[in-house]
Design a protein that fits this description.
Largest sheet: 5 strands, antiparallel
Strand order of the largest sheet: 2-3-8-5-6
Structural class: alpha+beta
Order of helices and strands: HHHHEEEEEEEHHEEH
Strand content: 15-25%
Radius of gyration: 32 Å
Length: about 280
């Protein structure tokens, strides 16, 4: 009996495709809300959204990855080259050691990165190490990026090196370092695809402590929703916005229903109270 009644309701509902689509959308939103609350608790989501170190490897104001790929684009996503996978040569001398590190990567995108940063970490050093940087392009060109005293946590913003920008003919480093050599004049610069290498030649004054390096080429697209001006993933805001929006919608629906019932009840009550008695029918 119950099964036949449900089948009748289902057959009736199938006559309205828009209702089925609406139910599917609501079910998907409810499922996403449950997944968000379980997988990303509110305290963890709030800590992430406040920014800081969790987002330092994300680009600024990046668009969604799927939107670029949907139109056949090849804008770059973020590349991270870590010293853990790099080739390192070590030579000792009186009073210290010399470390030569190759941070190499293949670049095959149509667009330039949005910026380039180098993160260095030197822990356990009594005396700060010194490092020189050399950029090698696929065509054999080399660009000196200067020398730096390295602290415990050191960040080198290659994109903001104004002296390097002047040596690159006025092109900002994250464009000039990856541009074809004939990219000058009025024509826009073109990407030179191939294998690039950042050579890090460091001198350390400690027998055991080393240097950790991480080269980051920030992309133009990121994730399913992109990022904002503080490098935060907008997908986090969209995911947590879903249960919040559903909760407000449910409260609004319940509140509207209850308010309507109260107004209707009051109206019926007062209507019944003010209704004049019916007069006797004439004989």
């Amino acid at each position: 009996m119950i099964g036949s009644r449900w089948r009748e309701h289902w057959e009736e509902l199938r006559r309205y495709p828009s209702a089925l689509v609406g139910m599917a959308i609501i079910a998907a939103l409810v499922g996403l809300s449950l997944y968000t609350v379980i997988a990303i608790p509110y305290s963890q989501a709030l800590e992430k959204w406040r920014g800081g170190e969790p987002w330092q490897l994300h680009p600024v104001n990046a668009g969604p990855l799927w939107a670029d790929r949907l139109v056949g684009g090849r804008q770059p996503s973020t590349l991270v080259i870590d010293s853990d996978t790099a080739a390192v040569e070590e030579a000792s001398f009186a009073g210290g050691r010399r470390l030569r590190m190759e941070l190499a990567f293949d670049y095959q995108y149509d667009g330039f990165p949005s910026e380039i940063n180098l993160f260095l970490r030197a822990e356990g050093h009594e005396k700060r190490p010194f490092a020189r940087l050399l950029w090698q392009a696929p065509d054999g060109r080399e660009f000196m990026l200067g020398g730096h005293r390295i602290g415990r946590d050191h960040r080198i913003s290659i994109s903001q090196d104004r002296a390097l920008e002047r040596r690159l003919g006025g092109l900002v480093p994250h464009i000039g370092l990856l541009a074809k050599p004939d990219s000058d004049g009025d024509a826009p610069p073109q990407v030179q695809p191939g294998r690039y290498t950042l050579m890090l030649d460091a001198v350390v004054f400690d027998e055991q402590a080393g240097i950790d390096a991480k080269l980051v080429l920030y992309g133009r697209v990121h994730g399913i929703a992109g990022t904002d001006h503080q490098r935060r993933e907008l997908s986090l805001a969209l995911m947590w916005g879903t249960p919040v929006a559903l909760a407000f919608g449910l409260l609004a629906a319940v509140g509207t229903t209850i308010t309507t019932l109260i107004i209707a009840a009051v109206g019926v009550w007062y209507r019944a109270g003010w209704m004049p008695p019916s007069s006797a029918s004439p004989r």
